[in-house]
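User: I'm putting together a teaching handout on how sequence relates to shape, and I'd like one worked example. Could you take Tc1-like transposase DDE domain-containing protein from Microtetraspora fusca, show the sequence you're using, and then write out its predicted structure as tokens right after it?

Assistant: Happy to. First the sequence, then the structure tokens directly below it.
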Amino acid sequence: MQCATIFSPHLTTKKDNRVGQWAEASNVEIAYTPTNSSYLNRIEAQFTALREFTLNGTDHADHREQASMIRRYIAWRNRNTDNPRLRRIVKRANVA
């Protein structure tokens, strides 16, 4: 049995330089966060809101239906960035 090579952006600069090369070419600085500290990653607050609005309390029939709901949420979110409930959820989750 052969083991597949696992690609992990967290280890890329040590084992595989593709992400490092892209970051350098794109003038992007990679900011690593500790594995168990997702609250330091500002995008996590957005995922909290997505989960609250699209996944909590639902029972989607299949992945297609769930993906549709997520797409609808993203479109709604982009049109309603000043929604008070959305802002409260993001602010509560964005503790860092």
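A couple of points you could highlight for students: The chain has a mean pLDDT of 80. Residues 63-79 form the longest helix (17 residues).
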